[in-house]
Write a structure and sequence with these properties.
alpha/beta, Uracil-DNA Glycosylase, subunit E, four-stranded parallel sheet, 4 strands
């Protein structure tokens, strides 16, 4: 399913929001390509699914997003409009502009852990954490895109975390 507008993306994203968020993944923005994690058509989606499959081989593409939600996982972004195609200065400015919104989300969602998806947004996430006075564990993973070795490290680092997450069935 291809989502084209911000309101469509947010409606789809919200449909997968778990009642209690254990692990909040924070991305920079939806990709300018039109791909979207919750549309099950992005590289991040595939890498995340592979990490879940390493933790539990019974997970398949047909129900991965439901399993992601059941594990208390959720993905949000600093910017709700694509910024990955912009020049670096404008991109940095929009990341900074997203910090206050992310701080509000942290207060609202109250995740147990957070994981920035890109190292380049780590300082923005830290600023939002400070603004929100959020206390929890921040996980660091390499971005799983572009290079297969980064994807492999991402998957191998995330799988044990997934195994420790409590689902309604094993909590």
């Amino acid at each position: 399913m291809m989502v084209r507008t911000r309101s469509e993306r947010e409606r789809v994203r919200q449909s997968y929001r778990p009642p209690h968020i254990q692990l909040l993944f924070i991305g920079e923005s939806p990709p300018a390509s039109g791909r979207f994690f919750y549309s099950a058509n992005s590289g991040l989606y595939r890498a995340m699914r592979m990490a879940f499959q390493l933790a539990d081989p019974q997970i398949d593409d047909d129900h991965f997003l439901a399993v992601f939600q059941q594990h208390g996982c959720y993905l949000t972004d600093l910017s709700h409009e694509p910024i990955d195609h912009l020049e670096p200065g404008r991109r940095r400015a929009l990341r900074e502009a997203g910090e206050k919104d992310l701080a509000r989300k942290l207060k609202l969602l109250r995740p147990v852990m957070i994981a920035p998806v890109l190292r380049s947004i780590a300082s923005n996430v830290e600023n939002a954490v400070s603004l929100a006075a959020w206390h929890g564990h921040i996980l660091q993973f390499p971005y799983p895109g572009r290079w297969s070795r980064h994807r492999d490290v991402f998957i191998e680092a995330l799988a044990p975390v997934i195994q420790r997450l409590k689902t309604p069935d094993n909590s």
